[in-house]
Every structure is written in structure tokens, then in C-alpha cells.
Specification:
Length: 467
């Protein structure tokens, strides 16, 4: 037995993660956003091994829904192609024993988490868009078709809604999801049909495409028939076992109805504010994971200012509490500690949103045959960085310059050799009538200057105010 004090002479921590390169980069005139982007990137790296893992010390598991968001974050931060492809393909293999893609793979636990099955379809389609790899798409497409065929043939009820007795969560927030018919599942399936129809078109599967489109339209009708509550002016969380509507409504479900084009115009007008400011009595988002989809809904409405406000508030709060990796849940869900786990890559959403929208570069055509460079500056004065593609990085630097930062808008764009781009300047041509674009023509479209750049171009662009 030891009888005296112990002196620790050396303490070391060995950091092990997937060897993803730092291909992406982001910096801007707001130091808080810079810190948020970098902490998000580091969080993803901590949760990257031979697959994405939900957290490095807690479960160390490829959770499929998590991996969808993490793939988009990876496309902004690292551009690690083999890692995202492996996650998509491992999930497809689980169909050998389950009617829907399983929630975490590979595993001896054959568990279906319904929403995660359709988030896998998102991941499949988005990986195709990032890579433009037809070989990958042809190989994995049959699993997408099987998933949706099984959905309709094995799990639809007499109302034409998905009814499944399994784990039906989406967010750690108190959504009423302990039922067979859960509204967010129906809405994710609507998105699955839309993405599958697009993939079928790419592959020339005309019969499949027609069936997917027909099923999507029918499911939207059934959602609007059975899951809308006129008195509440919202979509309910679920149907109870006696067929009546759940008394609960949630910010998450209204946001999905916006994002996936489910709400007809009159209903859309009534729920439009719920994504950013849910009314009293409506369940609010509980995790950065679910907030990813709410931010997507706001972007679909062009409400980038609301996205920025939320990013600064919610992720800024974690930074202010000293977070060096982002947390699984927001403070308040757990009673005795800040969060459920302190390093969770599903929470790194701002990496994706800041790179895609504030820096402004993303794919326009599969495989980055063409990119769209269209910054959304909001209150930023400048931003610079890189967005990875399968064949190199897109470099972007933009800034407002002059009196009050508004006399000129300057932008540098550098494209990889195989990538062309459409550049849209975030200034009004009536206020900035003079444009120089390295000899390339600038045309006015939809109230913005638009410039078409050939593949591999590096150009300096300047838009100047009128005198």
C-alpha cells in the first residue's frame, strides 16, 4: 500500500481521429462566428473515426441520422469523400435483415429509428450531388427504392400514412412521438420521395420516378387531411391510437412542413413564423441537431437574418460557457448538468451554413461541374475561406470597402480546374452600376449582378457605387 503522496510528473493525451485534411476554411469580420466555425470543425473531427461517430467517448457509434448532417458539415470543413461514402453504404447493407435502414450500423442491435431511415436517403442524394459519382449512385439506388417500397407496402395504414411501432424520436425536446403515426416521420418520407424521384430521373428510371412523385403527392394530401388542426393553426405531433389528434404541436413539425413544401399557401402563412419564433404552448427545439432542419426551413424562406441571429445566440451561448466542442443538447433539457454529452458532431451546423451562405460557395451541379458563388453578407464586412470539392478547393474572398464599408464590393474567386461557376454579387445594380470582372460579362438577373465563369478561373471582381 502507498503511504506517501504521489507526484504526477507527466500528463499526455493522445488524440486519435480519422485523418481528414483541413481543406475547408472560414473567417469573417465577426470573431464570434470564426470561433463557432472552428469549434464546429474540431467537433466533427473528434467524432470522425472509420465512420462518423456520434461522440468520441459516450457511444462511439455511427448513428445514421446524425451522419446525414455530419456529411454536409464535412463537405464544408474537410471534403473527406471516403468517409461520407462509407457511412451511406454501411447503412444500405442493414436492409439485409430490416425492412428500413437501421438507426446505427453496424450493430447487433437491429433497431429502426424511423426518421433516421429517411435521413439516410438525404445522405445518399447529397453524396451524389457532392461527388457526381454515377457508379456509386447506381450501386446504392436499389436500396433507396427498397426502402420506399417497403414503407408503402409494409407500413401504410388505411389513411395512407406511415404507422410503425418502433422508436419514433426526432429531437430531445418532448415531441409527442410515442405513437405509430408520428407527423415528423410522414414529412421526412415526403422528402424521401422527392429525392428518390430526382435520383430515378438521373438514372433514367422513368417508372420509378413516376411512382415516387405519385406517392409524394398522395402523402402530402393525407398529411393535410389527417394531421392539420384548424383550431390550433398547426400540424399536430401525432395521431393517437384511437385515431384522434395529439393535443401537442411543435416548432420542429411546423418547420418540416415549411421545408418540404407540405403546407398549402394559406396554412403556410399561418405557420411561417413558427420556425424562428414558436408561439406559447408550442414545443420548442431541444437540440442543435433538430435546429439544423429549422435553419434549413428559414433558408428556404430567405430568412438568413434569422439564421444568423439563432447561430449567434445558441452556439454563442456554448462558446460563452467555455465549450471547445459543441454539445448534444441545449441547456435546460438535462436537470443536473448542462447537456447530455459535451462533444457531439450532430451539433456543428454553423460550419455548413456559414460556408455555404456567408462565404457563399456550394455545388450547383453534381460533382461540382458547376458551383454557385453567392454570398449572403448580412451585417458582415468581409469573409474569406475555402470550400472543398472532390477535385480541389474553391477559394473566395469578399469585402465591402470605402466610406462606411459601402463604396465598393470586391470579390476574389478561384475555381479548381474542372469547376465552372455562376457568381451572384450581393449588391443592387441600381446602387452599384459599375462592375469589373476580369473581362467576363456581368448581367443583371433578378435584381443582382450575375457573372458566368468558365472552369478553372481565378478572377478579381469589383462592383462600385454610382457617383
Amino acid at each position: 500500500a502507498m503511504t506517501g503522496p504521489v507526484r504526477v510528473r507527466t500528463l499526455r493525451v493522445l488524440f486519435a481521429a480519422h485523418p481528414s485534411a483541413r481543406r475547408g476554411a472560414f473567417a469573417c469580420s465577426d470573431a464570434l462566428l470564426n470561433r463557432i466555425w472552428e469549434v464546429g470543425r474540431h467537433t466533427l473531427l473528434c467524432c470522425s473515426e472509420d465512420t462518423f461517430t456520434d461522440c468520441p467517448t459516450y457511444e462511439q457509434t455511427l448513428w445514421v441520422g446524425d451522419a446525414r448532417n455530419e456529411s454536409l458539415i464535412n463537405y464544408a470543413a474537410h471534403g473527406d469523400l471516403p468517409l461520407t461514402r462509407r457511412c451511406a453504404e454501411l447503412t444500405a447493407e442493414s436492409l439485409f435483415r430490416s425492412p428500413l435502414p437501421e438507426s446505427q450500423v453496424p450493430s447487433a442491435w437491429d433497431a429502426i429509428l424511423t426518421a433516421w431511415s429517411y435521413m439516410w436517403i438525404m445522405m445518399v442524394e447529397e453524396h451524389w450531388r457532392w461527388t457526381g459519382d454515377l457508379e456509386y449512385l447506381r450501386a446504392i439506388y436499389p436500396a433507396v427504392r427498397t426502402t420506399l417500397r417497403n414503407t408503402v407496402e409494409q407500413f401504410y395504414d388505411e389513411r395512407g400514412l406511415m404507422a410503425i411501432d418502433t422508436w419514433n424520436m426526432f429531437d430531445w425536446a418532448g415531441i409527442d412521438d410515442c405513437h405509430k403515426v408520428v407527423t415528423h416521420n410522414e414529412m421526412f418520407i415526403v422528402d424521401g420521395f422527392a429525392r428518390a424521384a430526382y435520383l430515378a430521373e438521373v438514372l433514367g428510371e422513368a417508372e420509378d420516378r413516376a411512382w415516387f412523385e405519385q406517392q409524394r403527392a398522395a402523402l402530402i394530401d393525407n398529411i393535410n387531411t389527417h394531421l392539420w388542426n384548424e383550431e390550433r393553426g398547426a400540424y399536430v405531433d401525432a395521431l393517437l391510437e384511437d385515431g384522434s389528434q395529439s393535443p401537442k404541436v411543435s416548432q420542429q413539425v411546423q418547420s418540416l412542413a415549411i421545408l418540404y413544401g407540405i403546407a398549402p399557401p394559406e396554412r403556410l402563412a399561418r405557420i411561417a413564423g413558427c420556425a424562428a419564433a414558436p408561439p406559447e404552448g408550442m414545443t420548442r427545439v431541444g437540440s442543435p441537431f433538430a435546429l439544423f432542419f429549422i435553419l434549413e426551413a428559414l433558408v428556404s424562406q430567405g430568412r438568413h437574418d434569422e439564421v444568423m441571429r439563432i447561430v449567434r445566440k445558441e452556439w454563442g451561448e456554448m462558446i460563452r460557457h467555455g465549450a471547445t466542442t459543441f454539445w448534444e443538447t441545449f441547456p435546460g433539457y438535462e436537470k443536473d448538468w448542462w447537456t447530455r454529452s459535451y462533444c457531439h458532431a450532430w451539433s456543428s451546423a454553423p460550419v455548413y451554413f456559414l460556408s455555404r451562405y456567408q462565404l457563399g460557395a456550394w455545388w450547383a451541379e453534381p460533382g461540382y461541374a458547376k458551383a454557385l458563388v453567392a454570398p449572403v453578407p448580412l451585417d458582415l464586412v468581409w469573409a474569406q475561406g475555402r470550400v472543398p470539392t472532390p477535385r480541389g478547393e474553391i477559394g473566395v474572398f469578399w469585402r465591402f470597402e470605402g466610406e462606411g464599408g459601402g463604396r465598393a464590393f470586391l470579390m476574389d474567386v478561384a475555381l479548381p480546374a474542372p469547376t465552372a461557376a455562376t457568381v451572384i454579387l450581393p449588391v443592387n445594380p441600381a446602387e452599384y452600376p459599375a462592375v469589373e470582372a476580369g473581362g467576363f460579362a456581368a448581367e443583371q438577373k433578378d435584381g443582382r449582378w450575375t457573372i458566368e465563369l468558365p472552369a478553372g478561373t481565378a478572377v478579381n471582381i469589383a462592383a462600385r457605387r454610382g457617383v
